[in-house]
Amino acid sequence: MAGSVGKKTAFKVKDTAWTVSYWHDGSLDLTLIGQILGIILIPVFISGLACYFGYRKLNALLVADQSSVLKATKDVLSNQAGVSYPVRLRVCGLLFPLLFSLNVKMISLILKII
Predict the structure, then answer these.
(1) Distance between CA 2 and CA 91 in Å, rounded?
(2) Fewest C-beta atoms under 10 Å: which of 14, 45, 46, 67?
């Protein structure tokens, strides 16, 4: 029965004045198992959903920014830089001043290495 105190068990600790006492029901209650599983599984499920949706959103943002960076690189290589390149993440926006400060020979050398 949930909430009831079970059988008291006590034993003395050898060579000390200590006595360890505990109460033991003898079996697990089905409601207790449900509560423990709920405490563990619900946060795991919520965390998994948060990671999944965060991954999908970040993936979409990175794909959009990747196309802008590739378009800017193509424009720099063809000497047509100066068009606006929309980015959705601030980190990717930091690449454009660096990209435009490099000359075409350096960019083509870097692309050959990659």
Answers:
(1) 55
(2) 14
| Residue 84 vs residue 4, higher pLDDT | 84
Biggest CA pair distance of the chain: 88
DSSP letter at 2 equals: T
SS (H, E, C) 38-99: HHHHHHHHHHHHHHHHHHHHHHHHHHHHHHHHHHHHHHHHCCCCCCCCCCCCHHHHCHHHHH
pTM of the model: 0.54
Number of residues that this document lists for the chain = 114
CB 87 within 8 A of CB 65: yes
- Distance CA(95)–CA(107), nearest Å, equals 13
